[in-house]
Design goal:
By secondary structure, the chain is an alpha/beta fold. Among the domains are: about 15-225, Ribosomal Protein S5, domain 2 (2-Layer Sandwich), CATH 3.30.230.10; about 230-335. It contains 19 helices and 15 strands. The chain has helices spanning about 80-95, 120-135, 160-170, 195-200, 210-220, 235-260, 270-290, 295-335, 340-355, 360-385, 395-425, 440-470, 475-485, 485-495, 500-505, 510-535, 550-575, 580-595, 600-620, and strands at about 15-20, 30-40, 50-60, 100-110, 135-140, 140-145, 145, 155, 175, 180-185, 190, 205, 540, 545-550, 640-645.
Length: about 650
């Protein structure tokens, strides 16, 4: 449940990732391509300077059967954490975009010098794809930009200096993120990047996605799923969703009934009134969507309304307890949460025992796992906060335990939602999950991608903010967890849930599916945080809502591309006899959100990524490919690595 609430200067770098394309015959030969990475840093006199250096990317076969990464440096510490993370992201994104299976393929990146930063992610993705497919890369082209899970490309810094570095190395084409037409150089001067390149004899082209970039770099179209219409939720699934509409409306009504019974003036604070009104507005929107036949988005609005209703109720109850029993009484009330522990045990038992058999059941089960893990993460965060709450009453202490109270309520409703998804899964039949399907391996490399994303987020967002405020990184992470519940969920899951998955899911297939789900959705959440705080430069108010973005065009272009990408991925499933209604539900909710305020637009973007990646995972498990097979790795293909310039 979604709650309401730079690269430096130019190391021998070897990144090894194992996978197998499901339709790719891997031989003993090696393919290599050369791409040109752009970086910038400080010269000896302190001025900013750009660099352009070659990266050799090689692909060959490996029968090890598990994902792994290896780094080989020409000097100690030459390879930075952000660069390694970008390499993982490139490998995983390339694999997911082309239906690879993570078992018997090895890819390596070889780079001389020192390097760090996430800004080569898009170029590395294109290079991996070219090496695997056997396509040749232009010798005079360079590129900069981050990479998102669906293949869209994000903004980076220092582009003007990078273009200058490219010109010095004889590059005639530089690809940059599509929305970055102007950049600020080290002297604070605003530069038109296209004009800057033209003066240096370099053609600068903005690209928003890996498909456009790949065509410009290789003069070859990267295979993509066909265009598709809006994915449909089956009538049978709609019938079950409409039942859940009634369930969540009843939950909302129950919260209002209890809210109206609040004693004294506990329910009359502005905070409580605002929450109450948000619930009322959400119920109204839900009714309008029902009239339009948009049941999945209507269900999300009713879930949101129930969240607001119960948060208003809980806030009022906390205010009343504090007024009548003081700080100690409030702590005692919140620590007495057996009701939440009982819900955890009940849903955990279902998660262990109701293991999916068909692809459609698996699709719903993965979403149920995500809701369950989110609920557990919030429950554990609340428990830890309450256990370590200050002994003395203070404004900071009240804020701490107030957040814990909110997390308990949202976690409880997440567990309810997980149970609802299990109810829906029971009604699905469809194709049986193939034996030896690579879902364990998929979870393994998605887990690495999520760790990479989180590491980059800490490096480019958390640590700079900590330095600016002169606080420790751990303190900055704690502050951000209070402000951004998605970040809190991510950190809570990493710390408390992932190490104990077997406690909740047992040691059978349910545990493996839970690992796949947590890896998938952690990867997407971390990418969403990077997009919000780094690529889009979002501005948040004190309540954590997005009130502005520094790059509006980037957000608009991403929403358009990600919606189209999700449509295509889901259609391939449905065209091959897989129901895919759960993916269509995610798409439908994201589509409605993408037309609302900035906070929900950001949620819609991540929703499209979720629908697309979820569909790709089900495709991987089912053995379906996107159609055009990748070229085989024959030994004779090892020598060609670049092509001449080609306008």
């Amino acid at each position: 449940m979604r709650s309401p609430l730079v690269g430096t200067a130019p190391v021998l770098f070897m990144l090894t990732v194992l996978w197998q394309a499901s339709d790719l015959a891997i031989a003993q030969g090696t393919r290599s391509v050369v791409v040109h990475v752009l970086t910038y840093g400080k010269a000896s006199d302190g001025s900013a300077v750009g660099h352009c250096s070659p990266v050799t990317i090689s692909a060959d076969g490996n029968a090890n059967g598990s994902a792994r990464v290896g780094f080989f440096e020409s000097e100690v510490g030459g390879t930075g954490d952000q660069w390694r993370s970008a390499g993982w992201m490139a490998a995983v994104t390339a694999a997911m975009l082309t239906d690879f299976d993570p078992r018997t393929m090895r890819v390596s990146f070889e780079y001389e010098g020192r390097i760090d930063g996430p800004s080569a992610g898009a170029l590395m993705t294109c290079g991996v794809l070219a090496a695997v497919r056997g396509d040749k890369v232009r010798a005079d082209a360079a590129m900069t930009g981050t990479i998102n899970p669906d293949g869209s490309i994000g903004p980076v810094g220092g582009i003007a200096h990078k273009i200058s570095g490219a010109a010095e190395k004889g590059m005639t084409l530089v690809l940059i993120p599509g929305s970055v037409r102007f950049d600020i150089d080290a002297d604070g001067e605003r530069i038109d990047l296209v004009e800057h390149g033209d003066k240096l004899g370099v053609k600068v082209i903005g690209v928003f996605d890996v498909y456009h970039a790949y065509k410009l770099l290789t003069n070859v179209e990267l295979p993509r799923d066909p265009e598709a219409h809006t994915p449909q939720v089956t009538l049978a699934a709609q019938k079950e969703i409409r039942k859940k509409l009634s369930v969540w409306y009843d939950r909302y009504e129950q919260s209002l009934t209890s809210f109206k019974e609040l004693k004294n003036t506990a329910g009359l604070s502005q905070e409580v009134i605002n929450l109450y009104q948000q619930g009322v507005d959400s119920i109204k929107r839900s009714g309008e969507l029902v009239e339009e036949g948009e049941f999945t988005a209507a269900l999300w609005d009713r879930i949101f309304a129930a969240v607001c209703g119960y948060l208003a109720l809980e806030t009022g109850r906390c205010r009343y307890t504090y007024a009548t029993r003081g700080y100690d009484g409030l702590l005692e009330r919140l620590r007495n949460n057996e009701w939440l522990e009982d819900e955890v045990k009940r849903v955990s038992s279902r998660m262990k025992n109701e293991v999916p058999r068909s692809l459609d059941q698996l699709s719903v089960y993965l979403i149920a796992c995500d809701a369950f893990v989110e609920g557990i993460a919030l429950q554990r965060l609340a428990k830890e906060a309450l256990a370590n709450a200050p002994d003395e009453d203070s404004e900071a202490a009240l804020t701490l335990i107030g957040t814990a109270a909110e997390n308990q309520i949202i976690g409880w409703l997440d567990l309810k939602l997980a149970g609802d998804y299990l109810d829906l899964a029971a009604g699905y039949e469809g194709k049986v999950i193939p034996e030896n399907a690579p879902w364990r391996q998929a979870g393994d490399y998605l887990r690495r991608a999520s760790s990479a994303n989180l590491a980059v987020f800490d490096a480019v967002v958390v640590e700079p903010a900590a330095q600016q405020l002169s606080v420790a990184g751990s303190e900055m992470r704690t502050r951000l967890m209070f402000r951004d519940r998605n970040y809190a969920i991510l950190r809570g899951a990493e710390q408390y849930v992932f190490p104990e998955l077997s406690r909740y899911f047992g040691d059978g297939d349910a545990l493996g599916y839970a690992f796949l789900s947590t890896s998938l959705y952690t990867h997407i959440r971390a990418a969403g945080l990077l997009a919000k705080y780094y690529s889009l430069d979002a501005e948040l108010n004190d309540s954590g809502y997005v009130v502005g973005v520094g790059r509006e065009r980037t957000l608009a272009e991403w929403l358009t591309f990600s919606e189209d990408q999700a449509r295509r991925s889901i259609a391939l499933l449905q065209d091959n006899g897989v129901d895919a209604s759960p993916c269509a539900q995610m798409y439908g909710i994201a589509r409605v959100k993408s037309r609302r305020d900035l906070t929900q637009q950001m949620e819609g973007l991540v929703g499209f990524w979720s629908a697309d990646m979820h569909a790709r995972v089900i495709r991987l498990v089912s053995g379906l490919a996107q159609g055009a097979p990748a070229a085989s790795l024959e030994p004779a293909a090892a020598e060609a690595e670049s092509v001449p310039a080609n306008e």
